């Protein structure tokens, strides 16, 4: 199975990266809806989509307003937005408020609990999505997605620690997509903002014994020359990369 990185930065887009959004084309599953979601139409392989939101911060939901170009405003049976109840309320009452978005789209809203069934993949196998709480101002939700022989964990907007409660949930995942807004040793800023330092994310990946680690939600102010140097960390974890927009990750 494949995960396409539609947007891989946080806070605001830049010339290199859009904000957080990922799609698994063969099942029509989207993780977060940042500005990168404008690219979704190019990767659609299903009639509709299920969009799972980690939280309601704008860099993770603003792309929901772009879906009208792809699905129209009356696509009741083609777009379902899944999230915690407070996140759904924020999207409905604020993002789609009449003063901001005068004609609200007719999408479905589904409260996201501890788990749900995912659409069947090309092998005809349905999957399971498992959620877990993350530490972030206003709250955030991590997700693990499993199909037989394929597993993916998505952890964004949290302060990573090798003692984090979610390590057991993501253990053994084929692919871990984890945010790292800060380089190593920026612990104070990470705690203040509810984001992660690179060294702590590598420690999480090691503790969880994941197959591969892909770093996302990197600082939008970084230039290519300033991107994290992974040389030292590859001695701890051989398979680690920094996501770029439009990367395709196998899992």
Set down the secondary structure blueprint:
Elements: E1 2-7, E2 21-24, E3 29-33, E4 49-52, H1 58-61, H2 68-71, E5 79-83, H3 85-95, E6 108-111, E7 115-118, E8 127-134, E9 140-147, E10 150-155, H4 167-170, E11 175-179, H5 187-193, H6 198-208, E12 212-216, E13 240-242, E14 248-250
Parallel strand pairs: 3-4, 4-5, 5-6, 10-11, 11-12, 12-13
Antiparallel strand pairs: 1-2, 1-14, 2-3, 7-8, 8-9, 9-10
Shape: globular
First-to-last CA distance: 6 Å
**Beta-strand content bin:** 25-35%
CATH topology: Metallo-beta-lactamase, Chain A
Q: Roughly what is the average pLDDT, rounded to an integer?
A: 96
- Give me the secondary-structure category: alpha/beta
For the record, what is the CATH homologous superfamily label?
Answer: Ribonuclease Z/Hydroxyacylglutathione hydrolase-like
Would you list the SSEs in sequence order as H and E? EEEEHHEHEEEEEHEHHEEE
Kindly provide the radius of gyration, computed on alpha-carbon positions and rounded to a whole number of angstroms.
17 Å
Low-confidence parts lasting 5 or more residues at pLDDT below 50? none
> Helicity, in percent?
10-25%
CATH class label: Alpha Beta
Based on the coordinates given, report the CATH architecture. 4-Layer Sandwich
Question: Main sheet?
Answer: 7 strands, mixed
In total, how many domains does the architecture comprise?
1
Strand tally, please?
Answer: 14
Strand order of the largest sheet: 6-5-4-3-2-1-14
Oligomer: single chain
> With helices defined by DSSP (H or I, 4 residues minimum), what is the helix count?
6
EC number: 3.1.-.-
Domain Metallo-beta-lactamase: 29-217
Protein name: Ribonuclease BN
Pfam families: Lactamase_B_2
